[in-house]
Structures are given as structure tokens and as C-alpha cells.
Design a protein that fits this description.
CATH topology of the largest domain: Rossmann fold
Order of helices and strands: HHEHEHEHEHEHHHHEHEEHEHEEH
CATH superfamily of the largest domain: Glucose-6-phosphate isomerase like protein, domain 1
Radius of gyration: 30 Å
Largest sheet: 5 strands, parallel
Strand order of the largest sheet: 2-1-3-4-5
Shape: elongated
Distance between the termini: 52 Å
């Protein structure tokens, strides 16, 4: 029967748990041995997939490790040991590696699939807290996090041990990523949806096909004509081109306002002495995320897009990028 719930501040308890779990990670960092190197090398040499298995909290952590592996270049999936006993072991091949999670190393469900895994010929890595456990003894390689004090005051709920297992799983995934020279463009292939995919895959050319704005003015244009052009485009800027259509500058509404504050009579003069003759331009093949970074670094709102002949083919606005979730 539950006792009466105590009200009040819980900050101290939360701090204690965070410190306990953080210390476990830091302590393991100092106690690691060659086990982890052998584990990474074994996975790197794997011709098949990394199959992660475990039950209970270990199974939940295993699913997260699978997700991280799969998205960073290590083909991986999760196998529930109970389902494995009823047919799912058919998904395992002799070229695969099975990463078996069990803090005690005595999880019956995991141990029950070991004979079949051995017969299939898959390599087994035990990810345990007890190096002398049954699972460790029956595996080809052992990755041991050792005995850790659970943050649960009862010492029963897996807390510190699961946090440490997850952190080590992340560390192995990153080590594999680096060893494979896994690049952002590789990552993008596995994350084509959402803002992440847009950041990594969307090009400037993809954007200008939707925007379809390209305000262009001759260097001999009158200011009033340019203002109409800028207003028509809604971008507050226009590319300035020479007689060959090549970009030689950009004029923005900010340039015009600054000239007006100096008392210059703009409306009966050409724009030649007012535009920026050193414009920042981009090409259509550039990633949209790169274009956004240029705008943020240079604190500008518009960018002319030029072709291989340095002729403006479009102009994009900061809002064109931000509205895409970049």
C-alpha cells in the first residue's frame, strides 16, 4: 500500500539523480579498456547488420541505440528476443552481429536465443554489467559497463545503468561514424524529411523555382524607375547589370534611404553612384542552408543568384529560407 504523497520541493532529489548518473558516465570514461575498441572494430568489419536485442528497460535502450546506428551509417534493427523465439530469428544471417543487452547478463529471454544465434553463425557481443555472467560467457565479445549504483533509492529501478548503457551506445555510434568518414550528405540520405532534410538537401535552385523573382535594372536606370522595379518584386532590392547582362552591383531600399538622409536629389539622377558595386552573390547549386548562413553572417536580407556567366537569374529573400523551417 502506498504511503501519503509528500508535497514540496523535489529539486534536491532531481539534482542527486543527475549527479549520480553523470558521475557514472565520467567514471566509466576513466575505466574503459580495450573491450570497446574490439567492439567497434568488430562492427566495422561486419558484412551484414547490427542486430540489437534485449528485454525490459534494456530493450527500450536497445531501440534507441538501433535508431542512432541506423541514421549514422550502421545498418541495424531491433530484435525482440521473445519474437525471435517464434520465428523472427529468420531475419538473422551469418554475416550479422548481435548486440545483446542485459545488465545482469542473466535475462532468460536473451539467453534462450543464444543457441540459435550460434547455429546461424552470427557473432554475439554481450553488452552487460557483469563480465562473468552467463551471457558474457556465451558471447564472442563482451562490453562491460561494470556494477553501478542505481539512482533509484530502492536500488531496483534501472536508472543509472540504463543511462550509462545509452551513453556508451551513442559513443560507439559516433566512433563508427568517424571511422567510416560519414558525411553530412550521407546523413541527409537517411533524413530526407522535415527541417533536417531541408537543411541538408534543399538547394538554392529548388527555391528559385518556387520564388520566380528576378528584379534587374540597368546601371543607367533612373532612381524612380528602379523604385518601381523594387516595389513590383516585393524584395526591396534589384540587381544592377551592365550592357552584357552581367551583375555589377545591387541596390536596396536601404541604399536609397541612406542617400535621402544625406540630402541627395535622387529622383532625377541615375543610380550609378548609389548602388553597392561589390554585391554578394550565390549560385543555384549551393545548399539553401549555406545561403542562409551567408545572409546571417553578412546581415543581409536578399541575395542575387547568378549563372555561370555571372548573370542574375533570380533573387531570394531571407524569408524564402526561414519559412521553409531552415
Amino acid at each position: 500500500m502506498l504511503t501519503k504523497v509528500r508535497q514540496g520541493s523535489h529539486l534536491e532529489t532531481i539534482k542527486e539523480v543527475l549527479v549520480e548518473e553523470a558521475n557514472a558516465i565520467l567514471n566509466f570514461q576513466n575505466e574503459m579498456d580495450s573491450d570497446i575498441d574490439r567492439t567497434v572494430d568488430l562492427i566495422l568489419s561486419c558484412k551484414g547488420r547490427v542486430i540489437v536485442t534485449g528485454v525490459g528497460k534494456s530493450g527500450i535502450i536497445g531501440r534507441k541505440i538501433v535508431a542512432t546506428f541506423a541514421s549514422t551509417g550502421t545498418p541495424s534493427f531491433f530484435l525482440h528476443p521473445a519474437e525471435g523465439l517464434h520465428g523472427d530469428l529468420g531475419m538473422v544471417t551469418s554475416t550479422d552481429i548481435v548486440l545483446a543487452l542485459s545488465n545482469s547478463g542473466e535475462s532468460e529471454e536473451v539467453l534462450n536465443i543464444i543457441p540459435s544465434l550460434k547455429r546461424i553463425g552470427a557473432k554475439i557481443i554481450a553488452f552487460v554489467g557483469n563480465r562473468h555472467s552467463t551471457l558474457a560467457n556465451k558471447s564472442d565479445e563482451t562490453l562491460c559497463i561494470g556494477k553501478v549504483k542505481e539512482a533509484c533509492p530502492l536500488g531496483l529501478a534501472p536508472t543509472t545503468s540504463t543511462t550509462l548503457t545509452l551513453a556508451v551506445g551513442d559513443a560507439i555510434a559516433v566512433a563508427l561514424l568517424k571511422a567510416r568518414n560519414f558525411l553530412p550528405e550521407n546523413f541527409a540520405v537517411f533524413h530526407p524529411g522535415g527541417s533536417l532534410g531541408k537543411k541538408l538537401l534543399l538547394s538554392v535552385r529548388d527555391i528559385i523555382e518556387d520564388v520566380k523573382k528576378n528584379p534587374v535594372s540597368s546601371k543607367d536606370s533612373k532612381v524612380k524607375d528602379v523604385i518601381f522595379k523594387m516595389t513590383e518584386s516585393g524584395l526591396g532590392a534589384t540587381s544592377i547589370v551592365d550592357n552584357n547582362g552581367e551583375i555589377i552591383g545591387i541596390l536596396t531600399d536601404g541604399d536609397i534611404r541612406r542617400a535621402l538622409t544625406k540630402g541627395i536629389d535622387l529622383f532625377n539622377n541615375s543610380i550609378e553612384s548609389f548602388y553597392n558595386s561589390n554585391p554578394t552573390t550565390i549560385n543555384g547549386n549551393m545548399l539553401a542552408a549555406e545561403a542562409l548562413k551567408i545572409m546571417e553572417d553578412k546581415k543581409i536580407n536578399v541575395l542575387p543568384v547568378v549563372n555561370e556567366n555571372n548573370q542574375p537569374i533570380a533573387m531570394i529573400h531571407l524569408h524564402d529560407l526561414t519559412k521553409l523551417g531552415l
